[in-house]
Amino acid sequence: MSSSPNGNVAFFYDIPVELVVELGRTRLTVGKLATLGVDDIVPLDRTAGQPLDIVVGGQLFGRGEVVVQDDRLALRIVELKRKASGE
After folding, report:
1. Which of 6, 9, 20, 71 has the fewest CB atoms inside 10 Å of its own CB, making it the most exposed?
2. Rg of the chain in Å (alpha carbons)
3. Buried b (16+ CB within 10 A) or exposed e, 29-64
4. Architecture of the structural domain at 15-80
5. What are phi and psi of 30, to 5 degrees?
6. Using one digit for the tens of pLDDT, what is the confidence trace for 22-72?
7. Higher-pLDDT residue of 4, 62
């Protein structure tokens, strides 16, 4: 199947999907979660400067980095996950 829109798949191109940018993850106990307060710092599983995961439909779509565009946060795509042939 071609990746360009054609008569069989063109209608999919107008379906909205939610794109999520994941900053990082961590695991906390319920007790620790209950003690969190304003100004507490929660370490995440990523290092500074590491690309952020872009998730669509619960699946990794690619990776990107945060930029500022017109005084708003935006995302610059640095990597796209491509399906292997035959999937």
Report:
1. 71
2. 18
3. eeeeeeeeeeeeeeeeeeeeeeebbbeeeeeebbbb
4. Roll (2.30)
5. -60, -40
6. 999 999 999 999 999 999 999 999 999 999 999 999 999 999 999 999 999
7. 62
